[in-house]
Structure formats: C-alpha cells, structure tokens
Fold this sequence. Notes:
Blueprint: E1 3-5, H1 14-23, E2 29-30, H2 45-58, E3 64-66, H3 78-98, E4 102-105, E5 108-109, H4 115-132, E6 139-143, E7 151-152, H5 156-165, E8 172-177, H6 178-184, H7 192-203, E9 209-213, E10 216-217, E11 228-229, H8 242-246, E12 255-257, H9 270-280
Parallel strand pairs: 1-12, 2-3, 3-4, 4-6, 6-8, 8-9, 9-12
Antiparallel strand pairs: 5-7, 10-11
Amino acid sequence: MMFGSHLSISGGMQNAVIQAKEYGFDTVQVFTKNQQQWRFAPLTEEAIKLWKAECARVKFTQTVSHDSYLINMASPDEKLWRASIGLFTEELRRCVQLGIPWLVTHPGAHMGSGEEVGLARIAAALDMVHKAIAEKTAITCLEITAGQGSSLGYRLEHLAKIIELVDAPNRLAVCLDTAHLFAAGYDFRGRLYDDFMKQVQSTIGVDRIKVLHLNDSKKELGSRVDRHDHIGHGTIGLEGFRPWVRDKRFVNVPKILETPKAEHESGRPWDVVNLETLRGLMA
C-alpha cells in the first residue's frame, strides 16, 4: 500500500520529501507554490533539480500536488474565471516540470449561476488549460467535495459530467476524499463499501481513481461541512477505513493524509500515528 501525507515545502520543496521518508511514508502531497497568493515566481532550475533528486533517492514516483484554494474554474465572474485558468495552467505546468504525475483540484463553486452552468464553466476552463499545456505527463484529479455553499463536485455525477464535457477526458482522473464523501452523504463504512463502489463504477469508473485522501470527519454523515479529523477519532471511525486500505485495486494509488498537524500525546507527530493506525487495519 502507498501511504503519504500533505507536508510543508518550507525551506525548499525537497524538504517535504525528506520529511515524508522520515515519517515512513511512500509518497507525499505538496503545494508547489504559496497557495494563498495569486502571484508566483517561476520554478528555478535548482528547485526542480533538488526535488527530482530527492524523489529519486527515496524512490518516490507517485507524488501528488494540490492546487491553490484561490482557484475557482466554475466562477461566473469573468475576471476571476480567467485568473483561475491562468493560475491552474501554472499549477499544471509545475507538475510537468517537477515530474509530479497527479494534480488534485476542487472543481469550483458556481456562486449562484447554477450547477449545470458551473460544470460547463469548469470543463471549458480545463479545455483552455489543456491547450496551453501540451505535455500529458501530469493528470488533473478532480476531487470530490463536501458540498459547502455552492461548491460543485459533491456528487460523483458532477465529476462524471465534467469528464464527459471536456475535449480530452484522458487528461482527467479522480481523487476521492473520505471526509468529503462522508459529509456529502456517501456512507462507505463496513459492509456498505461494496455498494458504494458499485456507485463509483457506474458513474466515474473505479479505474479513474488515481489519488485517495484518507481523512476522518469531525462532522456527521451528510452534513455538507468539510472538517477533517484523525483516523478513528471522527464520525467515520476505524471501520470506515478498513475496506479502503484492504482494497487491492488501490495498492499503487497514493493514499494521502490531510489530518490536522500537531503532536500526539505520545510525543510523536500525528502523521506517524495516523499512518500506524492505517497500516494496522490492513491485517
């Protein structure tokens, strides 16, 4: 099984890889720039070299990037929509430069324009991004969302529709986040997992899942509120994660923790404790 966590790139992107290996992970998820800013400086040759060298040293091949939360490719506001396309194009370009195969993105929020219009805006935006970045070595992973506010992507059908609408569906994959799924109303705990996977297969197809975010939820099933918790400490519970880590279809799919960063009462980082918990469910 391939486990990882979202880690800081402070002091250089390669530091996230170093820390991931120290924690016992097999992969890592990062932001490739300050995710709270529209402005960015191009990646330097040195930064690219250091990242690639460290990934090669520890044999990380299935790394993941998450795009900026500022991006909204469903926006009805033309200025914000164009800015989002520009920034997402840079996000995808960086993944190509760094050799990161998977770029996770929240599809966007329609801001009152309606779901159908919003989904069409996302597909149109992605078509423009793909035209700007001809290289196909980095794939965009549409992430399921909790469905807060006017956010799109809280139904599997939303992701399927975007894939259907784009000109190059082969350049899109899916990221399933357990906390988001649960908040959106999907129950996959215990024996319900097989029925949930049948839903996945009939909408987006299991083979299109290329990244998993394994997070417990502080909120109840169907709450439509996105609040992550440590594995087994939230409303999903341990039995909600056992089928995911035992599913052989996801052996080589990066399974990323996005749980709160803090120190466990044992003095160890929570990432290490959560990893230990997940691995314990595999037996």
